[in-house]
Every structure is written in structure tokens, then in C-alpha cells.
Amino acid sequence: MPRSTTIDLAPPVEKAFLVAVDTGEDPGWNAEESLTELAALADTAGADVVGAEWQNRRHVDPNWYVGKGKAEELLAAKTETGYTLLIADDELSPGQQRALEELTKVKVIDRSRLILDIFALHAQTHEGRLQVELAQLEYQLPRLTRMWTHLSRTGGGIGTRGPGETQLETDRRIIRERIKKMKARVEDVRQQRATAARGRDRRLVPTVSIVGYTNAGKSTLLNALVGSEVTRAEDRLFATLDPTSRQVKLGEGQTAVLTDTVGFIHKLPHQLVDAFRATLEEVTRADVLVEIVDASDGHFAEHRATVQTVLDELGAGDKPRLVAFNKADLLGADGGDGAHAPIVAGSVLVSALTGFGLDALRTELAALLASLWEDVDLAVPYAAGELLARVRERGAVDLEYGQRDVHVRGRVAPALAAELRAAASRWAESLREAAPP
After folding, report:
1. What average pLDDT does the segment 24-51 reach?
2. DSSP class per residue in 270-319
3. Dist CA 193 CA 418 (whole Å)
4. Mean pLDDT of 214-221
5. 3-state secondary structure of 99
6. Minimal CA–CA distance to 151: which of 134, 135, 172?
7. How many CB atoms lie within 10 A of CB 237?
8. Edge-to-edge, what's the strand order for the sheet holding 48-56?
9. Is the pTM of this model over 0.90?
10. How many CB atoms lie under 10 A from the CB of residue 289?
11. Would you list the DSSP string of 49-67?
12. How far apart are the first and last CA of the chain?
């Protein structure tokens, strides 16, 4: 009987070679350090990094990205390492990409294309896949000149002679139409999220968005605060792409809805920020932000600057914020009861992995949310029973029951304060109308 054989259909692992240009225009990051992050991105995408080169220049070469001499060195490196994929650390123009491909005879991509590929790999929900496809199409559109080498007229025969449409023009038109449809579908997602947000507002549950650099531990923190694994947490860049929201207890009866958002990264492609704006609007709608920082990373200051840049672009840069310096266990600081974690100037040291500092984080987060509350001192009728029930549940108030109304004195969330003032105003107006002339 013939022996059965197993055929491995998995594609071969691509051997990646990395290249960067250091112009000195990016404070806090030099080319070698940026290449280290690029190597982690390539590994996340499934490539085997076999080498890297960088060059110090006043500006990138408009034709080759690197200088002509360095480009020829890349060709020599191909002979030494056998790389099959060249990855540039900056976004390449179509001309730069085409020149490097013609020289090296291998596929050439840039950091933006690599990040888009990782997002496509990790998008699990329909919403995530929609937004990734939109970002890829917008990236692809200006690069069609290098993707098509034929410029033949479409169709043929009677009725097609004369100044017809080239294949390239057809492809551009198809992609533009696809982008238009994808934007409409992403807008539908935005509307759905806005509807869900209005529902949370009606329940007056405070909302908190977890933001931070990719791989800082956002998903691990959400899992730890909820007490179960609600989202996948891995030690990889962009392990979690699709946002997850869960209600979390903060102590003394206070709860909040926490949302884990997509991580940010150095040189984040603008197509992704635009495409994911529907998801990232969760950040703009949040009452407060929890910025999680990998305290064990020597570049956490640069990471925070990147996060701030993206938040500013979203219009959320000035939102109230609590900073959680994570991975205390890697600093040797995780030595005991989490309640004794140090709290300094709006920040707390935690370890989402071990639970160190989470009690302090809950306490500080509850205090930050309470600091946004407003003082109230007014009277509402007994008929406002449903409103009074929410006041007792969500506020820090004293209720004094009179003959005809209830006097409410204390602090409540802004939305609840607005409802109370409106009810008190209507009640006062009704008393005036009922008073004898």
C-alpha cells in the first residue's frame, strides 16, 4: 500500500530586510531605535527579519529613499542574506517604491503598508474589516501607477475606438467608487456607535476610554479590572484591534463603562486614523481617559508624545486623564498589596498582569469621575420618583423629604444635574401657577 504524504500548503516565511533614513527631524527617535520597532512589526506580520541598514542624511532621497550608494549596498545585502522582502521605515512614494523594486527585484513595502497588513490580519469583526479595507484602498489609490504596467484601451471593436478609458483610469475609477461605498458603510457604523452612546448617556453610566501605545497592556488592564478575559491579550503589537466595552465596578457603588481602544504607534498611517475615526470617536465621547504607559520601556516618553499627537488630532487631547504606568512587575516594584501602589500627580503605578495597584487605580478613577460632578441644592416633586431613584444610585446626595417635594443636596454627574435643574424649574413654575393671586 503506498505511503500517504502530507502536502504543506502554508506559504513560505518571507525573509525581510529593513532600511531606514535618519534625518534628525524626529526628536527622541533615531533610526536604529525606530528599526527595532519596525522589526517587531515585521515579526507580528509573520516575517523573518534577516538584516537591517540605516543611513544618516539631511533628507530622504526623492528617487531611492536612501542614497544611490546605499541602494547598491542593499543589492549586495540581498546576496548575503537572501531576503525576499524589503521594508522601508517611512512611507515611500510610488516612484521610490518602483525604483527599489527594479533594483532589488524583490517586493518593497513601507511601514504604513506593513501596519495596514497587520490590521488586516487582526481585524475580527465586520466593523474592523470594513475600516481596514477602507484604509487599504486609500493607501492603494495613488500607487496604482506601479501596480499596472499595461495601459491598453478597455474593450475593443465598434463603439470603443477613439479616446477611450485606459486600464489604469478604469482601475482608479473602480477604487474611487469602492472607497465611496466603504465610507458610507463606515458612516453607518459611526451612527450605530452614536446611538449606543446615547443609550449609555440616558442610563447616566460614566464612560472611560483606555488609550495608549500599542502593546502597553490595555487589553490586559481591561481584563484585570473586569475580572475575566473579555478581550485577547498578547505580547505583540496590535494584538487587539476591535474595541471592547465592559462595565466595571470602581467601589462604593460607583460603576463605569470602560472601552479598550486600538493602540497607537510611531508614524501611524494617516489612512488608519481617518478610517478608524468611527471607532476612535469612543475616545472623544468618553468622560475621562485612562492612558496606559509601559513603564518598563525606555521610550515611554516618546510613546506618550505619539499618543498625545493622535489624541489632539481626534480633538480629545484636553480630556480629563488618569495615567496608569503599567508593568510594575518588570520594574521590580510589584512587591505587595496593590492598595499601597504609589500615586503621584494624577498617575498610579500598576501591574495589569499581577493585579498590583488596581485598587489604587479604581480609587483614583472614581475620584477623577467624581471631581467632574456638580453641586446641586434644589427641590423636586415626589412625582419625579424615577429621577430621584437614579440620583440615589448615581450621586452623592442627601435627600430631605418634605410635605410636597424632596430637597436634594449634594453632588451628581453633569447630565444628572441638568435633569434635576430642569425638574426643579418645572416644579417651581407649577407652584407659582397654583399660588393664589
Report:
1. 87
2. HHHHHHTHHHHHHHHH-SEEEEEEETTSTTHHHHHHHHHHHHHHHT-TTS
3. 24
4. 87
5. helix
6. 172
7. 19
8. 48-56, 15-22, 85-88, 107-110
9. no
10. 23
11. EEEEEEEE-SS-BTTTBS-
12. 110
Which segments of 31-67 does DSSP mark as H helices, in order?
Answer: 31-44
Task: Work out the angle between the directed axes of helices 358-371 and 218-226 (0-180°, nearest 10).
Answer: 90
Q: Whose CA is closest to 266, among 30, 54, 65, 94?
A: 30
Neighbours of 78 (CB within 10 A): 20
Amino acid at 258: L
What pLDDT shows up at residue 350? 92
Dihedral sign of CA atoms 279, 283, 289, 295 in order: positive
Give bridge partners of residue 244 from the DSSP assignment: 260
Task: For the chain, count helices (H), then strands (E).
Answer: 14, 14
CB distance 78 to 106 below 8 Å: yes
Query: Residue 311 forms beta bridges with which residues?
Result: none
Beta strand 396-401 with 207-212 is unpaired
User: 319 and 289 in contact (C-beta within 8 Å)?
Assistant: yes
Q: Of 236, 269, 233, 224, which Cα lies nearest the Cα of 362?
A: 224
Give me the phi and psi of 264, to 5 degrees please. Answer: -100, 165
> CA 160 to CA 351: how far, in whole Å?
68
Q: What is the pLDDT of residue 335?
A: 46
For residue 306 the three cell numbers come to: 505619539
Angle, helix 126-140 to helix 277-285, in steps of 10 degrees: 120
- Give the span between the Cα atoms of 11 and 92, in whole angstroms: 26
Q: What's at 427, amino acid-wise?
A: W
Reduce the DSSP state of residue 120 to 3 states and report it: helix
**Cα 197 → chain centroid:** 18
User: Do the bridges between strand 207-212 and strand 254-260 make them parallel or antiparallel, or are there none, so unpaired?
Assistant: parallel
CA-to-CA dists, residue 86 to 14, 65, 75, 132, 338, angstroms: 10, 12, 11, 23, 46
Taking CA 435 as the corner, what is the angle to CA 433 and CA 437, rounded to the nearest 5 degrees?
Answer: 95
How many Å apart are CA 281 and CA 279, to the nearest integer?
5
Taking only Cα atoms into account, the Rg of the chain, rounded to an integer number of angstroms, comes to 28
What mean pLDDT comes out for the span 71-87? Answer: 92
Question: What DSSP designation does 255 have?
Answer: E
Banded pLDDT at 401 (limits 50, 70, 90) = very high
CA–CA separation, 425 vs 432, rounded Å? 11
CB count within 10 Å of CB 184 equals 9
